[in-house]
Amino acid sequence: MPGVADYLIDRLRDAGVRTVFGLPGGGGNLDLIQAAGRAGLPFVLTTTETGSAIAAIAQAEITGAPGVCITTLGPGAASVVNGVVCAKLDRVPLLAITDSYASGTTFEHQRLDHQKLLAPVVKWSGSLAPDVASQNIGFAFDRLAELPPGPVHLDCPANFEEAHAGDGGLGARSWGHTDAFGDPAFRALVTAARKPILIVGLAARQPAYAAAVRALCEARRVPALVTYKAKGVVPDSHPWFAGVFTHGAIERPILDESDLIIGIGFDPVEILPRPWNYRQPVISIARWEMAEDHVPFRGQHVGTDEGIDLELAEALTQSEWDQSVVRAHAETARRAVLNAEVLSDPASSLTPQSVVTMAAARFAGKARVTVDAGAHMLPAAVLWPVSEPNGLLISNGLSTMGFALPAAIGAALLDRSRPVVALTGDGGLLICMGELATLARERLKIIVIVLNDSSLSLIEIKQQARKLPPAGVALGDLNWSRIAEGFGLGAWTARTPAELEHALEAAAAADGPSLIDARIDGSNYPDIMKAIRG
After folding, report:
1. What's the pLDDT score for residue 106?
2. Is residue 172 part of a domain?
């Protein structure tokens, strides 16, 4: 019989896990790291527990396999919570493994009840204590496999290897199939629609789903809006791409022309927290049932990928949409962001839009991009063109700062030949700055672009909207190039478009990781926000 550590690692590897991330403690997870080495499964040391979880989340989103992170006991378990909640609200299968004292000990030092701490934010939490280790490994994999995806927690006592490994578990649960098309009222909504529009969300990023969505758009001439996380399911260049859906102002004109909203893998956790006030009926087609307390779905069809391709395509008639009008809507929305008022001389200073568009002109289509939370994410999510699912990675359900850099690390480790661009604000990078050491140690081809305006701009905009003076938002003038050089990265500072073009060229040619400190004028952020959110 294999030991528990080898058994667990073998099951993770067989499930498609590519990397284990984390900060090890001195207990049972040292055995897991050794077992991973024996199995050829790399362990990558991060500098923060949240960073380890986010790097694992990025890999899970790209591969569809679970992500895995490990932490030490006590403070390590407490520090990983933000990453675990990110997996919960962004619907990602993540296994978080925490070290703990050996079963039966009563030491108080660094002792927390990890299971009670994490229970509110995970799908299931269990222990690898010797008497239940085998059974609980089975339970953990069952919960990782069920829909909707989300995080699972295992507590790893120092004496867990006293158990023998074996099969156990309950068997994965799922939503099964709900045939809404068998309901005459539901089917009538679909068949009567003349100008239906799709909102494509995070649960439609699997290859079969994405292919079915594109085929549906083409066969029935239906436009598609995509959420931030679903960018690339319908590429920006696709003739039926209608723009980005945020539950804001930017998509309102084309939605007002529609007579039926069809959510395809659209989870309400993705959108702005404001009342749903569209007059058209809205229905859902997804792999799991969506909550109805925010979006008033008139019906939900829960099924597999084929449910999009067959039932919906069969029920829809060819729409009355004019393709040129759809493209005009998408371009008008893009122009509204691109041309939001610029108060500085565009030839001598950088704006958020110019940084995004210049970086995209060089790297879009070649590099994956990760985007942090903050004011800069608004132009980034709209202006960066994406041609494949998960070509843009962003925290949307949780919208946590400090996401872009560790997500870029996870993505880059999957394919070292493909560069990754991490778009972050100065506030977001401060939160996870230690991960610069991780990408330097791993020699990853990551270009970190810091949109640096020395402020927590998104919060400052909200202060302005309430006519409050700025308070608690100034970050100070940080020399990010010097900081990056201290970690061993190539680094450049850019204050003008010409300097940014030089920095982008140098970063593209660099053999390892690099950072560009883009000193921006963020004075037009309020106008960008108004264009997108209203």
Report:
1. 65
2. no
Give the strands of the sheet with 124-127, arranged side by side: 43-45, 20-22, 67-71, 94-100, 151-157, 124-127
Is residue 358 assigned to a domain? Answer: yes
Residue 170: the pLDDT is 47
CA atoms within 13 A on the CB side of 157: 22
Measure the CA–CA gap between 13 and 16, rounded to whole angstroms: 5
Residue whose pair of structure tokens reads 């030089």 in the numeric block: 502
Please list the residues that pair with 231 across neighbouring strands: 234
Radius of gyration, CA atoms only, the chain: 24
Q: Please compute the mean of the pLDDT values over residues 418-435 and round it to a whole number.
A: 95
The amino acid at residue 128 is: L
Judge if 289 and 353 occupy the same domain: no
How many domains are there within the chain?
A: 3
Examine the domain organization and report whether 306 and 367 are in the same domain. no
CATH number at residue 382: 3.40.50.970
140 and 185 housed in the same domain: no
**What is the average per-residue pLDDT within 306-328?**
84
Residue with tokens 């909504």: 189
Residue 152 and residue 24 in one domain: yes
My answer on whether 152 and 230 are in the same domain is no
Q: What is the DSSP string of 351-413?
A: -HHHHHHHHHHHHBTTBEEEE-SSTTHHHHHHHS---STTSEEE--SS--TT-HHHHHHHHHH
312 plus 363 within the same structural domain: no
- Chain mean pLDDT for the chain: 91
Same domain (yes/no): 68, 199: no
Domain range holding 492?
341-533
The torsion defined by the Cα of 484, 83, 293 and 183, in degrees rounded to 10, comes to: 100
Q: Is the pLDDT of residue 470 over 50?
A: yes
**DSSP, res 206:** S
357: left (phi over 0), alpha (psi -120 to 50) or beta: alpha
CA nearest neighbour of 428 among 373, 487, 389? 373
The pLDDT of residue 163: 64
Q: In what order do the strands lie in the sheet with 224-226?
A: 241-244, 224-226, 196-200, 260-264, 282-286, 300-302
Q: Are 347 and 316 in a shared domain? A: no
CB-CB contact of 532 with 248 (8 Å): yes
Contact between 138 and 111 (Cβ < 8 Å):
no
Q: How long a stretch of residues is the chain?
A: 534
pLDDT in tens, 274-307: 999 999 999 999 989 999 999 999 999 998 655 5
